[in-house]
């Protein structure tokens, strides 16, 4: 049976009528003071209110009754303030129903409650621990906003701070034996710099690695897979390296975090390979084959980076003088790409594989350096030619000026100045 189009046109109107209908809950709480008034103030910005839902949809009762006893009558389903342990199931009444959610957001996932039950939070809640995070600890209570809303506590820019409300609280984490420095470490990381400083909302946050509703710490054997969800090529090389089977069983964590840490992930540099703070030195002494290979890799990377910087400086200088060096500039981009490839190949820990892009990059660095130097030499030649031309033009102008003076003085312009005048 075909549904008349008028049904779809009237559906938003029914929601509007519901949202503007009598709501004694808000009327009463708006007239109160302090904490009792707060829900009535916050609910104005709530995503549920915007979709036509009211207090009674979560708390039960009769929102049209003027008598408080009738409005909050348990016989009409009034539950008042839900217990913390009951929150996830309460939210799931709607959010786990595909038919209900389709009325508002057809694309909305409806497996959040199932995922929550598999999380560390959900498992502890099921065991009777009512201090763990539930829906309201992350999404707030009466002013729940859409994830894309910049004011939402689960918006990418605010999510780390939201997680930190509990995980940076030493008192809350004491009974679990969980460190509380994750948020502070994250704020020193390249991920935080990309997210907060550069405003890249796709940059990793807590949920990117731990999950959101099904949040849990990655197992040691899955760390590389977690990092590899973004750093795909790095993970593929690492999985084939000699370190993968060794680090996968490392005490206290394995995989990528052995070298890069977990929350305080800083910009990688060759100082991680060689030097007083080298990560490699934790396992390889400088004089051992492993230490020597690490030092060689660092030398290759620094050498190529330095060569490309030198070449770029010369080419840039030539470009400022107006010389044609566009081809060299393009080739420098190829050189930088080889440097990236070399840094990528480092994760295979196979020097021969890393040497290939290093040699290709060095060839480009030398080629572009010569192009820049040739352009600067051509600039000098042009300057000398221009100087000679200016001198010649100057002499010519002086000669013409002298000739004009002689003509004006009545002399013979064709007679040399030293020749005697013929009468």
UniProtKB/TrEMBL annotation:
Domain (Tetrahaem cytochrome) spans: 47-167, 205-285
Q: Name one GO molecular function term.
A: metal ion binding
Location (main, coarse) = other
GO cellular component terms? cell envelope
Q: Which cofactor does it need?
A: heme c
Q: Which Gene3D superfamilies match?
A: Flavocytochrome C3, Chain A
> Which residues does UniProt assign to the signal peptide?
1-17
| InterPro entries attached to this UniProt entry | Multihaem_cyt_sf, Multiheme_Cytochr_ET, Tetrahaem_cytochrome
Localization per record: Cell envelope
One family from Pfam that matches here is Cytochrom_c3_2
Q: Where are the transmembrane segments?
A: 384-404
Record keywords: Electron transport, Heme, Iron, Membrane, Metal-binding, Signal, Transmembrane, Transmembrane helix, Transport
Name listed for the protein in its UniProt record: Cytochrome b subunit of formate dehydrogenase-like protein
Organism equals uncultured Acidobacteriota bacterium
């Amino acid at each position: 049976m075909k549904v008349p189009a008028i049904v779809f046109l009237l559906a938003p109107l029914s929601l509007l009528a519901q949202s503007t209908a009598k709501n004694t809950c808000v009327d009463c709480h708006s007239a109160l003071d302090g904490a009792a008034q707060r829900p009535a103030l916050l609910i104005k910005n709530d995503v549920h209110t915007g979709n036509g839902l009211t207090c009674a949809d979560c708390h039960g009762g009769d929102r049209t009754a003027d008598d408080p006893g009738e409005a909050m009558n348990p016989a009409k389903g009034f539950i008042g303030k839900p217990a913390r342990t009951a929150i996830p199931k309460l939210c799931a009444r709607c959010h786990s129903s595909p038919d209900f959610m389709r009325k508002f957001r057809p694309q909305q996932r409806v497996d959040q409650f199932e995922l929550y039950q598999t999380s560390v939070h959900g498992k502890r809640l099921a065991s009777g621990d009512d201090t763990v995070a539930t829906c309201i600890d992350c999404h707030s209570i009466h002013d729940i906003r859409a994830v894309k809303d910049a004011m939402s506590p689960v918006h990418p820019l605010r999510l780390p701070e939201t997680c930190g409300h509990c995980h940076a609280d030493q008192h809350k984490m004491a009974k679990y034996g969980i460190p509380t420095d994750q948020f502070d470490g994250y704020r020193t990381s390249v991920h935080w710099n990309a997210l907060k400083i550069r405003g890249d909302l796709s940059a990793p946050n807590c949920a990117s690695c731990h999950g959101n509703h099904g949040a849990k710490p990655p197992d040691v054997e899955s760390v590389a897979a977690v990092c590899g969800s973004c750093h795909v090529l790095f993970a593929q090389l690492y999985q084939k390296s000699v370190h993968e089977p060794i680090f996968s069983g490392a005490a206290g964590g394995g995989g990528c975090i052995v070298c890069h840490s977990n929350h305080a992930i800083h910009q990688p540099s060759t100082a991680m390979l060689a030097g007083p703070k080298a990560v490699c030195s934790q396992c390889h002494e400088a004089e051992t084959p492993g230490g020597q290979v690490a030092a060689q890799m660092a030398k290759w990377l620094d050498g190529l980076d330095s060569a490309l910087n030198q070449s770029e400086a010369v080419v840039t200088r030539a470009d400022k003088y107006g010389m044609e060096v566009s081809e060299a500039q393009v080739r420098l981009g190829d050189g930088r790409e080889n440097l990236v490839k070399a840094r990528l190949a480092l994760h295979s820990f196979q020097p021969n594989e890393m040497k290939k892009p290093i040699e290709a990059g060095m060839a480009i660095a030398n080629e572009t350096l010569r192009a820049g130097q040739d352009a600067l030499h051509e600039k000098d030649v042009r300057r000398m030619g221009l100087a000679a031309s200016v001198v010649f033009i100057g002499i010519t102008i002086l000669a013409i000026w002298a000739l004009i003076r002689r003509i004006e003085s009545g002399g013979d312009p064709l007679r040399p100045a030293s020749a005697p005048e013929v009468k």
